[in-house]
Design a protein that fits this description.
Blueprint (H helix, E strand, L loop, with lengths): L43 E10 L3 H12 L4 E4 L32 H8 L5 E2 L11 H8 L4 E2 L2 E2 L4 E2 L1 H14 L3 E3 L3 E8 L2 E9 L2 E12 L5 H5 L4 E2 L11 E2 L2 E4 L3 H10 L1 H15 L6 E2 L5 E4 L12 H25 L7 E5 L4 E2 L4 E2 L14 E2 L2 E5 L9 E4 L11 E2 L9 H7 L2 H21 L8 H10 L10 E2 L3
Parallel strand pairs: 1-2, 1-10, 2-7, 10-22, 19-23
Antiparallel strand pairs: 3-6, 4-5, 8-9, 9-10, 11-18, 12-17, 13-15, 13-16, 14-15, 20-21
The chain binds flavin-adenine dinucleotide.
């Protein structure tokens, strides 16, 4: 298995904070005690065909797709908004949807969703520039996170509030129901298959019954508790296992800051170095959808578990302190930040990786060779120009053994190298849309998700605007 390192032409644009790890923190010692919770009857809150748990990019795309297929669909989300990390996590930089020639390969839900956003809510290069290798154009967009490896890409930054609203309206227009403030606690299991969920809310513990469950929690909460096999190994050389709570500073002059970075790289380097010396972990500001708002997607903190409540708390405490420290340093030293203020820390903690399903199929580093999977549900741009686009198989959403459940989004089945790009927002839209169509077919036909006819699934995806490879180049799925 290769590593996703810079030498391999990988994705490490930001080396400085990648390995920030607070090894000195103290772990809570286990108490060794257990208590027994009394068994009780749980009210059934609702019935549906397709239950989607988690309203992030994958869950929203799944709910819209299932609703449009005519399935009675319910989307359950623990927070008060949709969009997951793309909104509540302030990950407003939507990564690449074009291949290295500038052709849009992630389409379908992604295309439709972005087209709904008003122009003032989106910042990014025009379509005519996608794929451009012109040095000046690429340098300009690189500072605005829309050019990599010298190629301009379709990777806009978007207003999170507008995205929340667009996601909510699309789900409702598709005829799906939403349940906010509801935390999916345990899968409801019958005959070894997932048939719904027990959730916690202000009404206490309740249940929802469903013909098919889509686990879109990002952390594999449901498939893990249902006993499905999963992996949690990481690529130490990549950032995909790092955690942090992102934030926004308002009142900035980003064009001024970007000019300074471009024209005085040595001064910028010295500024970053002083920040690291003062605070140990220090992050550069990214462009957002507005020139007066700066985006901080780090410092990335390593060595924590995304499914350990003490670790989640420690990352929150550290991230909030870092936010205040960054404000002080940026205001004092960075051109364009003199009037900056702490606009918002993300309502959702930034988790890139927790668990990855062990699926009936998978995406491995060895698959980045241009092969087309027979059960392809979409095509992902590759990590670097030297790799062809990557065919994403349906099997990566289907648990090895567990029935009644699909798992799109950042916890899909893949190896750590492939996770570095399959976890990105457009790829989560892609797998979410496929899970929604498949779950609706499974519920409608009364079959297990693994038995969904691939031709019918692919026809449904094409109807939804998804780009699939030419079927003549398909190979049988490994
Ligand atoms: C700091 C950071 C920077 C990133 N940078 C980029 C970037 O630049 N570009 C890019 O495209 N991607 C980026 N990513 C990756 C991307 O944001 C995520 O991988 C993507 O949002 C995952 O989508 P998802 O739907 O699988 O999960 P999530 O976005 O995590 O959504 C899951 C949703 O499920 C809900 N949920 C979870 N558990 C439960 C439960 N038990 N019950 C009910 N609801 C539940 C959550 O509240 C959330 O709304 C970044 C991620 C991080 C953390």
């Amino acid at each position: 298995m290769g590593t996703n390192s810079e030498t391999e032409g990988g994705r490490l644009f930001f080396r400085s904070e990648t390995f920030a790890s607070d090894a000195s923190r103290r772990r809570r010692p286990p108490t060794g005690e257990r208590v027994t919770e009394a068994a009780r009857d749980i009210p059934v809150h609702a019935h549906c065909d397709v239950l989607v748990v988690g309203g992030g990019p994958a869950g929203v795309a799944a709910a819209v797709a299932a609703g449009r297929q005519g399935a009675r669909t319910l989307l359950l989300e623990r927070h008060n908004h949709l969009g997951g990390l793309s909104t509540g996590g302030l990950v407003v930089w939507i990564d690449r949807m074009t291949d290295w020639s500038g052709r849009k390969v992630i389409r379908g839900f992604a295309e439709e969703f972005l087209a709904r956003l008003p122009a003032e809510a989106v910042a990014g290069p025009p379509a005519a520039a996608w794929g451009s290798r012109d040095t000046a154009t690429a340098a300009w967009w690189q500072l605005r996170t829309a050019a990599f490896h010298g190629v301009v890409t379709h990777s806009p930054t978007c207003d999170p509030e507008v995205m929340k609203l667009a996601a909510m309206e699309m789900v409702l227009e598709a005829g799906a129901e939403i349940l906010f403030h509801a935390w999916g606690a345990e899968p409801l299991m019958e005959d070894g298959a997932a048939r719904g969920v027990f959730f916690e809310s202000k009404q206490g513990r309740r249940a929802i019954r469903a013909a098919c469950v889509v686990d879109a929690t990002g952390d594999g909460d449901l498939f893990a508790r249902a006993g499905a096999a999963y992996d949690a190994d990481i690529d130490e050389a990549d950032i995909h296992h790092c955690m942090n709570t992102s934030w926004l500073f308002g009142g900035v002059n980003m064009p001024r800051y970007q000019r300074w970075r471009a024209e005085e790289p040595e001064a910028f380097g010295a500024f970053m170095q002083r920040g690291r010396e003062r605070f140990r972990y220090f992050e550069r500001a990214f462009a957002s959808w507005r020139d007066d708002v700066a985006l901080f997607l780090g410092p990335r903190l390593a060595g924590y578990s995304a499914v350990d409540v003490d670790d989640l708390t420690a990352v929150e405490i550290q991230s909030h302190r870092l936010m205040a420290q960054h404000l002080e340093h940026y205001r004092a030293e960075a051109p364009g930040f003199q009037n900056a203020w702490m606009m918002l820390s993300a309502p959702q903690i930034g988790i890139r990786h927790a668990r990855r399903l062990r699926g009936a199929g998978s995406v491995l580093r060895s698959d980045w060779d241009g092969r087309v999977r027979a059960d392809e549900i979409g095509v992902s741009p590759s990590l670097a120009p030297k790799f062809p686009s990557v065919s994403v198989p349906y099997g990566a959403l289907v648990p090895e053994k567990l029935d009644g459940l699909l798992a799109p989004g950042r916890h899909l089945s893949c190896d750590p190298n492939s996770h570095s790009f399959l976890r990105e927002i457009p790829q989560c839209w892609l797998t979410g849309q496929a899970a929604g169509v498949a779950a609706a077919i499974a519920a409608n036909r009364g079959i297990a998700p693994r038995a969904v006819p691939i031709a019918e699934l692919q026809a449904g995806l094409r109807q939804g605007g998804v780009h699939l490879s030419d079927p003549r180049s398909a190979q049988s799925a490994a």
